[in-house]
Structures are given as structure tokens and as C-alpha cells.
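Raw record, unedited: BTB domain-containing protein
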Amino acid sequence: MEVVGGSADAKLISEKRSIEWKTEPFSARLKKGEDICLPPLTCHGRKWSLELSPSSSSSVTIKLKLHFEESTPDHVQVIATVRCGWNQWGFPGNNISRKSPSLSLEAGESIFKAGDGIYYAIDTSKKSKVMIAIQEIRQQPITWAPSNYLSADILKMLDAGEMADVTLAVGSKKFQAHRLILAARAPVLAELAEGALFNAEIQLKGTDESVFSTLLRFAYSGKDPFETTGGGKPDPRAVLKAADRFGCTALKRLSEFHLAQNSLDVDSAVELLLLADGHSCALLKEAAIRVVVANPKKMKSCSGWDELKASPSLMVEIAEVALFRESPTEGGGSDDVECMNIETLWKNLGDAGLSVDGTREMLIERLKNHRDSH
């Protein structure tokens, strides 16, 4: 692929490929004034046909036509040359479009060496041959695309306190926030600010400053706080609790996903099961129960075992999974709501514009009610 032009208008020229039409001698037909239409052949993945039309006793119009298909761009640029016998000509111009799909050239007497009405350059043997060499000219693809700065710009408003209308006090730190964003991203926080005076200060007790900062920055930016490079990553357990308390459902789901993916093992299964049950984390709870059921003899030595034994409802759920319940469909392929895994329930509820927060039973009931009403 050859590159031509400067950086602003650089174009790519494809390799030269040829197509050749072989047909019965057509000099006699041209002599009679007939048009010659040669069938479409493929070059560079596109179909081209050729037409020869005698325009006078000593010249022929050669027309190269592109057959536009649905996937063909509206405009195509090519460099095309035609060869008949010993003669070769380049088509003037190189722009082809749906409205003007052909390139034409006039081959005159000095080129064709016509004599006695026979076009020797075209028809010199028992077979007539016409060869077209085609190169496509394409714009060099743009490799740069503008970044989406929306989340970064909104986060700047939080950092600068620009146009803030409520102050959230956590410990010794005060966060200037915006009720409109809180209403969309952490509705419980928005409810706490509802009815308060402009830029009123609201005290939030029982919350760690750094954890609350993580929650607020996620609410403004949507950036995964657990993918931060280097040290200082937040504790997903603490973040999950804060997200559940203040109604930041997206961060709550993200926290339980990270716990299920990166922290769940035989030693932590009981502790994470209790955490998931206490905060209605369906994904984490389901994953933790599977680990408990798969490793029953090791659970007695796990932290939280005594608390788990003291919960009849959890012990019943574990027993049901161990004895009766089949695992939810792998990949969520079933359309039966009862058989869907948590990810599929979340997707179906999200597509319907419904809340994805709650236990598995709550999610199933919510989706069933939606389907029954539609």
C-alpha cells in the first residue's frame, strides 16, 4: 500500500490488480456500429464491467463501469489503465460515484491504428483481449479520536465545589456536592439533602472519610475505584457498605463483583456470605454459597461460622442449594426467570429500566411482575 500526499491529505493507494476479458473477436461488430458489453469481473472485491462503443469510423469509446452494491461506498477513487493489444491508455479522472459510476476515454485513430474498418489493436487474433489494471485510492484512516471528557469535567465540579448547593460533612472533612447529581447517582444522599436550605451542611456519622470520598468520586465520574494503579486501593467491603447505605447501586454492584472475583475463597466464604446477606448482594451471596456447599468440612474453621449457624434462614438456603436447587443456567441462556443467573437478571431488569438492587428473590419477583404487566 503506497502513501501519497502530506499528513493532512495523505491517501493510500492499493496495489495494482488486473482483470482481463477474453471474448470472441468483436472487430466485425464494431465495424457494424454495435456496442460491445463485457460481463462484470471482480477486482479489489468490487465488480467492474467494460463497454466498447464505436464513436466514429476510426475511434472507440471505452467505458469502465463500477457496479455499486449496498456495502460499496458512495464515492470511489481509482487509477485505471486499459490495455488492448500493444496499446495502453490511462482513464482521465479517477472519481466514481453512484450517480456517475463510469470512467470513459476516447481511443482515436492514432492510437488504434484502424485500417479497413478493423481495430487491429483490439482484435489481433482469434480471441479479443482487453485488460484493465485498477488501483484504489483511499483516504488514510484517522487514528486519533477525541476523548470523552464528560466524567472528568463533572469531577472537576466536585473538586472545585463549583455551583455546589449542599455540603456533606464526614468527620473533619466537608464535601461540597450537587443535589442533581446525587439524585441520579446516590438517591439516599439526595433524600437527606431534600428540604435543606441552599448549601446547607448535613452531618453524616458512622462513615469513613476516605470511603465516602471514594463513593462521591464514583458518583461523579463512574470510574472504577478498584482499578487504580499503585497502592491506596479502597477496601471493597467498606465501600460496599457505604454504597448500600447511601443508595449508590452501581458502586455496590461493582464492589460485590470485585469481592466475588478477587477475594472469595474457602477461608473468606462464610464472612462474605454474611456480608452479602446483610446488604442484599445477590451475586456475592450466590457465589459464596457455592463455595460453602463445595467445601462443607472446611467451613467450621472459618471466621463467622458461629454467626452463620445462628442464622436459620441462611442454613436453609445452603441446604436447599446442596440438596435440591440446580445451579442457575450457565451464561443465563434460559428464558425461564427462575433459572437465570444473577448477571442475566441484572441485564433483563436494566434493559427494562428497573432497579437491579436486592436479593435474588427480589430480582426474580421484580422481573416476573414486569413481564406479567407487558
